[in-house]
Amino acid sequence: MKSNKQKRILAVASAGGHWVQLLRLRPAFEAFNVEYISTLDYDESELNGKLHIVTDANISEKMKAIIMFFQVFWVLIKARPNFIITTGALPGLATILLGKLFFIKTIWVDSIANSEQLSLSGKAAKYFATVRLTQWPGLSHTDGPAYWGNVL
Amino acid sequence: MQLPFDRLVMRVDEWAKNNSVNDIFAQIGDTSHVPENINYAPYLTPSEAEEMFQKSEVIVSHAGMGSVLNALKYKKPIIAMPRLASKGEHRNEHQLATAKWISDIDGITIAWDEDELLELLDSVDNLKSGSAISNYASPELIQNLRRFLLE
Question: Does the complex come out with an ipTM higher than 0.90?
Fold first, then answer.
């Protein structure tokens, strides 16, 4: 098997629950160089990878969202990842949207909080994500998100 | 960024006053109610928040996964009250859905409304923590992600 040491992952999550869920995926990144994007200044020493901070924005904060888009774009240029993985929310969606333009493989993991329907961002991720996952078997669908397990 | 959650902050503040409890700390966000009987900050840094979780005996929070997973990680009993979009506390009703399924997990007690919250606070000494959860996602999810990343 070829070494994945040089392959790079950009792992993205907004602060709070999204971030806690992202960190629970770390064993999957072991063979890679990982950089992170979040919206708060988390302790980099626990990450084993650089943390980039972008402006927090949701769908009702247009100006912040535009700023955040440019910040994410800049991180992508610098980090040049082979893969993007995100647990949401809008900054994660922005990253996989821009990632698609650069032909980067992207994974959307919808939050475990969305047990009855996908998040709004998770629905939009349909258009950008190489792989789109729900953490609820009942929400998986052959034409929709897949279920690969959950963060618990 | 979270919307205000006055119902939770006001009730805990009121309960602290009525019961002369003075060792409560709250991160209240943009909540407009200014607490008079509890210590608070609008926002904590991530490391301050981690420290608070570790120091606490009981967690009282919204039904958000960050607080819930941290409470489980540090084996702290948690009272979680779902934010309601119908009351302008969130953008949709997913916290109601979350509250339903996490109510089965040991160590988590749901306050479905403010009256239940006050009752639970009255019997707070009886709350028990669950067993600590693992640090990482299910082996199934990790393996599937690995397979995709390494192929």
Answer: yes
